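Q: What structure does this chain adopt?
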Amino acid sequence: MSVVKGSSVPRETITLRGGGGIAIPRRTSPRGPTKDRTKINEEIRAHEVRVIDPEGNQLGILQLHQALASARDFGLDLVEVSPNANPPVCKIMDYGRFRYEQTKKQQEAKKKQTTFQVKEIKLRPKTGEHDLQVKIGHIKKFLGKKDKVKVTVVFRGREVSLAQMGRELLSQIVSETSELSAVEQEPRFEGRTMIMILTPK
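A:
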């Protein structure tokens, strides 16, 4: 391999019959090894690979130097897409564009992800109607922001005997928030607390 004076582009010299030679540009990797360790072009170490062209057509099993030559003919990169196959599978593509499109897809998927926060509302079994309506207002606000709501009825001492009152409170909350929520976890006791979880629709 030689470098033409005045140019930093590596060139391969091919010797012709009769002793002459010509220098042709050699396509190099557009970057160093990536975090995902995808190998391209001269980073590929297999002696032979199964090659797929840019249109998805099978070119068969080729020696690595033949596969690299085919990629150069297309003016594209040879990308190792299935390194664990025998032999490894490589596809001829524009790696820079491929990485750009992959990154764009990941960013779009991330935007579509919904992150739920869990808000908690605590009640007592003897919570009055006014206070209950205030709590329900908070629950609706949280649900409107697409947050889950953990509704907890706290029992102290002998109040455990008032479990039915706790269930009635939670049932009223479900009824008054039904347009905004669905019950993810039905009311159940955990120690001295009765817990229900609502998730936004």
